[in-house]
Amino acid sequence: MSDSPSTQALPAGAARPDAAARLLAGAVRLLPPGRRDWGAAMRAELDALTEPDERRRFAIGCVAAVGSRPAVWRRIGYALLPAAVVAYVLLWSASIDWAPRRWGVVAFAAVLAVVAELGVVGPLGPVARGGAARFTRACGYLLVGVLAVEVDFAIAHKDNNDLAGVPVLSTVLAVYLAATLAVTRRRAEATSRSLLIGLAAGTTAAAAWVVAVVLAPPIPPGPGFATAIVGAGMAAAVLLVPRRTPMTALRAALIAGTTAALLIFNAVVLLGSFGPAELIPSLAPHALTPADQLANSRIELVDPYLWLLLLGCLVAVAQWVAARAPASPAEPTSATPTSAVATPPANTTTHEPT
């Protein structure tokens, strides 16, 4: 049985990896996947050294070399960013008097931070090399992040002690984020075409909903019209993908569904909070004054659209599952550079047997 690079050729009398081996192993983990062979070479060279001082000097030099790579510092920054966000929320929420509300706000942010961390150093990462995957992941972070800020702000300023929606919303948004990370990770089978078509179709569908409600106010009091728009966006994504790649079409449709659902729900929250009065349906006719009717209707408008958010969450689960299915051999995945696709030699002569 062969030993691993971190345990073979250790100094005499050492039963476990020494400090130099552990130091170098930790530094190698920070290297991007494309430079892991360099890290393995450094560890193999360390294993060939037997003197403790020589091993220590070599390990320190390797750590300095690893630390000189900009990609390593980017990786460290990405890994620390979710923790920094939670730390900021912890400080920002210090002014909340009721402890359960404050820790509900912090827990909500912490759940999403854990999922984001899994996309950097966990099973949902790293992001694929293609530009389409990076752009899709950035859009997912933006959409979920904006909605998370809105939800955390709403929880912090609730005028009652009902916190039952905190675990539900944190789970729903965590599923959305995890699905985006899963479909854009390096081991995913999604193609660049499915990612971009899905984003475009979902964004177009959400824009069509916004245009429709602005030109023909008020905003519908229920999610029926929005659900139909989401379905139309998913269908459009399927039509835009060549028929010969059914899995690409499925993934594009699912990405369009999650994108449209998140965008429309965000639009409802923003328009319901800051939109002109003519966009707000009358949902509280028994309020004492017109101002009270408008204020209460703004609050009540968002609740029915939580069903749209839940529907999009189910689509996100399907997107997560579809990210693991084999890709069509007709085109490379988002993790495969175009230059890596095999092409036949230019001047190949075929010899037939005589």
TrEMBL record:
It comes from the Bacteria. It comes from Paractinoplanes rhizophilus. Residues 328-354 are annotated as: Disordered. Keywords: Membrane, Transmembrane, Transmembrane helix. This is Integral membrane protein. Signal peptide: none annotated. The chain crosses the membrane at residues 76-94, 106-127, 139-157, 163-183, 195-216, 222-241, 253-274, 305-323. The lineage of its organism: Bacteria, Bacillati, Actinomycetota, Actinomycetes, Micromonosporales.
